[in-house]
C-alpha cells in the first residue's frame, strides 16, 4: 500500500514538473526577442583623433617644436574628427583621443560635446598627466547618422623642465591648477564635480640675486570676475632649495580692494634685496561655466617690479621700470568641443503577397543605396509582433502536456 502511494506521489510530481516546463515553453513562445546591446570601442572607425591629427594654432603639429614645450606653459590643441559612414554608434560606445608624443594633460578633463541644438553628442574625460582621453557617446548618432563629425579643444603641457614668463633679470611669473595640501597645512581640494577650485600663482623676484633697493612688486589678476586672491595663503620663501620662510619684518603687503575678495596686492621690500625670493599664493576660481560644465577658461595674471639695480649680480644697473620688468602668466582649465550629424528619412515599405491569414511576416533588413552604391546602412523593417520560434524540444514538451491534460 505504501509503495503504491509513493508511486502515485512520484507520478503526480512528474506531472507537475511537466506542467511547469509547459508554462516556461509557453512564455518563451509568446515573448518577443530581446537583444543585449553592449558598448564598443569604435576608435578604428573614427579619423582625426590621433596625436598626429592634433593642430596647434591651426597648423599641424611639428614634433621638433613640441619637443621644446615646457611643463609650465599651457598649449591649446584642437582636433576635428569624423565618424566613418555606416558606423552604428550606440549610447556608451567609446573612442580614444591621443595627444602628440611629448605632451600630457595639465589637469583633469570633464566636459560635454553639444550639437547645434544643444543635445549632448558625447562626453570627454581625461586625467591629469595622461597622454590620452576618452570620448563616450550618447545615442545622438543613432538617429543623426550622416555627416557625423565633431571638434575638441584641449590644454596640455610639454615635458621640458622650467618655464615661467617675464624678465629673467628681475621677475618671473607662473601659474598652475591646484588641489591638495598647501603650506599652511590646510587642504584645498577639487569640487564635487572633480574640477579645480583653486589655482596657484608663483612670482620669482630677483632670480639672478642682484642687489636691488626700493623694490615694489605689484600683482594683478586680470580676470577679476571669475577668480579672487586668498590672502591667508600668500607666503614668501627664500629661493634656497629648502623653502625657508622670509621673515615678515622684511616686507609689507597691501591687498586691494580692502574689503571683499582682493584681486591685487602690492609688496614693498624693506631695505636691500640681494637674494632670490619666491612668492606663492592660491586664488579661488569662481567661473560658473567651468565649474558647472568643465568648459574651457583662461586665467591671466600680471606681476610688475620697480626699484633700483646697484649693478651687481650680473648685468648693468640703474632704475627698474615696470615696463621693462613685467611678467604675465596664464592658467588654462577645462576644455570644450562640439559635434553634430544629420538625419535622412527614407520610407521603405515591403509589400507581402499571398500571405495566409494569421501568419506573422518576419523582420527583414533593407540595404540602403546612394547613387547606385551601398551605404553600409541597414534599415530593419519589423512586423507588428516578432516572436521567438519554439525548438523541436519545446514542441515535444508542448505535445506531452496536452496529453497529460487530456488524460486528467
TrEMBL record:
A biological process term (GO) from this entry: cell adhesion
Membrane topology according to the record: Peptidoglycan-anchor
Annotated localization: Secreted, Cell wall
Key words of the record: Cell wall, Collagen, Peptidoglycan-anchor, Secreted, Signal
Chain ranges of the SDR-like Ig domain: 70-156
UniProt keyword annotation of Magnesium present: no
UniProt protein name: Collagen binding domain protein
Amino acid at each position: 500500500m505504501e509503495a503504491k502511494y509513493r508511486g502515485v506521489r512520484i507520478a503526480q510530481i512528474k506531472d507537475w514538473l511537466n506542467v511547469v516546463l509547459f508554462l516556461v515553453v509557453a512564455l518563451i513562445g509568446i515573448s518577443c526577442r530581446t537583444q543585449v546591446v553592449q558598448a564598443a570601442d569604435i576608435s578604428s572607425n573614427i579619423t582625426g583623433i590621433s596625436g598626429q591629427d592634433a593642430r596647434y594654432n591651426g597648423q599641424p603639429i611639428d614634433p621638433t617644436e613640441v619637443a621644446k614645450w615646457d611643463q609650465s606653459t599651457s598649449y591649446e590643441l584642437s582636433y576635428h574628427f569624423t565618424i566613418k559612414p555606416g558606423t552604428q554608434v550606440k549610447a556608451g560606445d567609446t573612442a580614444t583621443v591621443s595627444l602628440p608624443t611629448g605632451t600630457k594633460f595639465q589637469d583633469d578633463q570633464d566636459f560635454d560635446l553639444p550639437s547645434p541644438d544643444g543635445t549632448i553628442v558625447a562626453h570627454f574625460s581625461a586625467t591629469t598627466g595622461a597622454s590620452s582621453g576618452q570620448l563616450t557617446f550618447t545615442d545622438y548618432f543613432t538617429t543623426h547618422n550622416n555627416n557625423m563629425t565633431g571638434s575638441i579643444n584641449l590644454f596640455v603641457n610639454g615635458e621640458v623642465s622650467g618655464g615661467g614668463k617675464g624678465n629673467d633679470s628681475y621677475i618671473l611669473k607662473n601659474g598652475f591648477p591646484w588641489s591638495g595640501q598647501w603650506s599652511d597645512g590646510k587642504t584645498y581640494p577639487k569640487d564635487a564635480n572633480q574640477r579645480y577650485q583653486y589655482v596657484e600663482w608663483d612670482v620669482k623676484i630677483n632670480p639672478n640675486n642682484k642687489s636691488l633697493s626700493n623694490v615694489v612688486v605689484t600683482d594683478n589678476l586680470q580676470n577679476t570676475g571669475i577668480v579672487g586672491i586668498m590672502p591667508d595663503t600668500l607666503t614668501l620663501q627664500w629661493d634656497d632649495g629648502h623653502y625657508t620662510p622670509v621673515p615678515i619684518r622684511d616686507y609689507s603687503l597691501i591687498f586691494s580692494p580692502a574689503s571683499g575678495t582682493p584681486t591685487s596686492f602690492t609688496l614693498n621690500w624693506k631695505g636691500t634685496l640681494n637674494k632670490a625670493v619666491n612668492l606663492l599664493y592660491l586664488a579661488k576660481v569662481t567661473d560658473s561655466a567651468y565649474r558647472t560644465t568643465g568648459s574651457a577658461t583662461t586665467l591671466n595674471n600680471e606681476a610688475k617690479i620697480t626699484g633700483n639695480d646697484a649693478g651687481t649680480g650680473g648685468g648693468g644697473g640703474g632704475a627698474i621700470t615696470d615696463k621693462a620688468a613685467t611678467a604675465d602668466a596664464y592658467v588654462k582649465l577645462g576644455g570644450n568641443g562640439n559635434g553634430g550629424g544629420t538625419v535622412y528619412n527614407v520610407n521603405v515599405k515591403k509589400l507581402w503577397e499571398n500571405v495566409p491569414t494569421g501568419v506573422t511576416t518576419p523582420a527583414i533588413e533593407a540595404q540602403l543605396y546612394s547613387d547606385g552604391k551601398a551605404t553600409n546602412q541597414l534599415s530593419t523593417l519589423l512586423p507588428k509582433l516578432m516572436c521567438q520560434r519554439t525548438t523541436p524540444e519545446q514542441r515535444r514538451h508542448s505535445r506531452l502536456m496536452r496529453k497529460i491534460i487530456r488524460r486528467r
